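*** Backbone structure tokens ***
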Amino acid sequence: MLSRILLVLLALAAPLVPTAAHAADGRRQVTVASFNVLGADHTDGRHPRRGFDESPARLDRAIKLLRRTHVDLVGFQEFQRPQYDRFLAKVGDRWGVYAGAEWDTDNSIGWRLDRFELVRGWSVPVPYFHGNLRYMPVVELRLLHTKRHVFVMNTHNPADTRGNAAAWRAEAVRTERAVTRKLSNQEHAPVIMTGDMNDRAAFFCPFTRNGVMHSFIGGRHRNGGDCEPPASMGVDWILGNRYVDFGAPRIDRSALVEATTDHPLVSSRVTLR
């Protein structure tokens, strides 16, 4: 009896050693974020937006937020040239960035170089204000520890600040839905979508209707086709296909975020299957 008790005590005192399965899960897990950082032209011009510092100070806070949230992969919106350049100057040895177009960095995708390597990148024309096209980035990345390929699209759909843009947002959603569906069907790999969609249910319902992509904050389409949007929604989204399993969503509206931008930092820990 005494020997059995000693064995139990020794087992409880022994350090926990992760199994091979747990270690593999860790290598397949990454933290994904979508982050509208408030473009430099809102705060650095002759009529700066009240309540915000100029973009250099705000970009430094954005970097701190990415580090604090342990982000591995992020879709940036309003990531304008001064912010893009400062980001690379500050952390370009640790982060890779791909912009939608060489002359337009507003919509860019960033990834930690110790987690991913770039395989290729391209852009997709999506209607923006008044239907004018902007080029939204898509990348194929390789997860270093597992060699699994991951596809990411990041976008910013037009707001109503220059007139009713609902028709252009609907056209943008059709384009984005077609891109993510095609990648999912052809590549049989994780596909992630990030972005400031400037819509809630009006984005979620048509985008997820074919069942290819699902949201980091839930919601679903019932068998009859009725849309059940997530209970709590903003305009900032992360979505993934069937090879992407979302953990608990994080919607960060902390004081540091509010000193950085007018959007929350949204993120989720995901497992890439």
Remarks:
- The chain has seven helices and 14 strands.
- The longest strand covers residues 116-127.
- Residues 38 and 167 are 24 Å apart (CA to CA).
